[in-house]
Sequence to fold (301 residues):
Amino acid sequence: MNTDEKYNAKIATMKDYTYQWQPDNFDDPSQPILKITKSSLGSFNWCSLKYKYNYIERLPQDQTEAMRKGTILHNHRENFFNDFDIQKATTMNNSEIVEYATGLMPVDEYFDISLTVAAFEAQRFIESVSENKTHEFLPISNEGKFDAEITIRADTNKKFTLSRDYVIHIQGIIDRIFIEDGKLIPFEYKTGGWKDYKTTSMRQEMAFYQLLIENAPDEVLIKNGLTRDMKVSHWGWYYPVSNYVYAEPIKKASMTSVMNNIAKLIYAYERKEFPHKFFYRMCQHCSYFGICDGANEDTWL
Fold:
C-alpha cells in the first residue's frame, strides 16, 4: 500500500487539488488547485526538471534501496510507538526497559539500526521517569497526515513576482509530534546518514510542517490529537545511522524561505518553465538521469 492509499482522506471543506495544475483555470471553481507536499517542494528545489518528470508528467521511476529501507524503518518506528505500553514500562528497571524496547523492534536486515533506535528510546523513557514526565514520552501525533489551504500573495517572493494571489493545497505526513510543557515539537526521522550541510534543508522541511500545523482546519488537528491553541516552539530531527539527534527553537527565516520556494514553484507553473539543474555528483543518482537531455549534454562538457 503506497502513502497516498494509506492516508487518503477527503476534507469536505477543501477544494480538489492536483500536481497537474493549470494557473489559467484558477478562477474556475470546478478546477483543482495546486497541491504541494514537503517532498514535491524538495524535489523542485533540487531540480525543477526532475519535479516536472515526477509530479507533472508522472514518469515512472524504480524504487531504490534507500526508498525501500526508508519505508520499512518508518513503519517499524510508527509501530514502536503504537505498541509501547507506558503503564507496563513504568514497572520495569532500566535493563528491563532496554530489553522491552528492543523486543518491540522486528528482526530483519535493518535490525542494527532498530537496535540503535530502541536504545535511544529506552534511554529517553528512563529520563522521562526520573523527571516525572512519562506523559510526554509518546508522541501526541504518530505519522499524522495534515492538510491545509494557504494563500500565496503575488509579492511573496520579490525575485519571482506572480501574476496574482493564489490559494494552494499543502499536505504532509509528519513523522512525530511531541508535546513538552504544552508546546509542540515536530520531529523528523531520517534513515540515511547525517551531514552538516543538511541543516538548511532540514530546517526548511520542518518549517513546512509548521506551516501545515498552523493552517490545518480544526477537523485535521483534532484527528491528529491537536487543538488550535497548541503552538510549535521547537523542531528536530533524528538520524539513527549516524546516532545524531538535534532539536532547536523554530527559525522564522526558514519559514520565509519555504514561502519563497513555494512562490518560485508557482512562478514555474505560470511560465511552464522547468529547467534542469545539472550537478553530476547529484544527477548520477537521479532516477531520470538516462532520459534527461540536459544532464546528458552537460556530462560531455
Observations:
- The first strand starts at residue 17 and ends at 18.
- The beta strands are 17-18, 33-37, 141-152, 166-180, 183-189, 234-239, 244-249.
- The two ends are 42 Å apart (CA to CA).
